[in-house]
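Quick one: structure for this chain?
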Amino acid sequence: MTKKKNYKSNGHGNGRHVVHVEFSRPGATAVAIAGTFNDWRPEAAPMVAMGGGRWLKDLVLPSGRYEYLFVADGLWLADPFAQATEPNPFGGVNSVIRVPDDQEGNGRLKGHDPS
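Got it. Here's what it folds into:
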């Protein structure tokens, strides 16, 4: 998954920003994103199937640093295009996104799992 460093306020003046998430996993029947922004609960952020293995989700997040993983059909997957990773207590790594204070443009995470 790749991430552009641009983000945009959601226009409500509350210091929260829209981050557009994309993920590709051919053959997946259910995909979600779980992380520190939703207490690692995949059911809190299901992604929308767009066809052809492509999944989308818009997250509204305050500025800060967040760890996350994709959950595809119950399998927890690190983002292969993450800007940074952090070791997790399960022997793997979590992907990391930073939502900056100053916002211009749109935030975007774009992932692809070729399996």
